[in-house]
Automatic annotation (TrEMBL):
Its membrane topology: Multi-pass membrane protein
Name assigned to this protein: LysE family translocator
Location, primary (coarse class): membrane
A GO cellular component annotation in the UniProt record: plasma membrane
MF annotations from Gene Ontology: amino acid transmembrane transporter activity
Domain of life: Bacteria
Entries under Pfam families matching the protein: LysE (PF01810)
Residue intervals passing through the bilayer: 6-29, 50-71, 77-101, 186-203, 215-237
Subcellular location: Cell membrane
InterPro entries for this protein: LeuE-type
Keywords, comma-separated and alphabetical: Cell membrane, Membrane, Transmembrane, Transmembrane helix
Source organism per UniProt: Helicobacter magdeburgensis
PANTHER family for the chain: ARGININE EXPORTER PROTEIN ARGO, ARGININE EXPORTER PROTEIN ARGO-RELATED
Amino acid sequence: MLDFTLFSAYLGAVITLIITPGPVVALVLKNTLKGQDSKTKSTQALKTICGTNLGSLLLIAVSIAVILGVAKVSETMLGIMSIVGCGFILYLGSSSLLGFFKQRKCGDSAQPCHIERSEISYKDSKFESNQSEDSLEKTTQNKYSPFLQGLLLSLSNPKDILFFIAFFPQFLGITHSLYLSIAVLTLSWIALDFSLLLLISYISQKIQLKRFETLIAPLSDIVLIMVGIFGIVYGVISLQN
């Protein structure tokens, strides 16, 4: 039988953790704003959320394996992987921020912007001087797809495995069966993670955050950069201790 009091506490904790502003929320908002219409906005958001959910599911699977004693986690290896992962977050934020400023500079300039041939290819291999704004935006987008961005961002901090290892055991008593409890906790996490991020994306479209894109996009990138820098510094300090 399900312990609804304990389960309610778990749901409240998960909701608080997911909606707290962080790199995942920043990435979902940023990719949502990239869309030119409601359909592409929803597609961008859905792909990003599917990627982050898959990453969370993989981390949860590793955590469960550790909880059940099937696998062991080396803190040194996790520290190294965390530094590498935070490096990716730093790269994702900085490259996107650089692309944003390049796009702004090109938009403000009266002269046609020079775009490297390696960045974009045309069938006729010619660049039109009156290139449209939409085409210009495509050249400055990150080379990773929204799904891959979400997946890599979710997997970029392996120390989340340690978080799940510490978090899940607090609520394993929600049912009489360990395996049933793990299944309920995992499915609840994935369902809440997916639905809440999708809700955040939907609300951002309804309140027309597009008009604030020039502010939100760079702020989202700055959040990623700060998380990346902090994670690298923390990882290096942890390895030295």
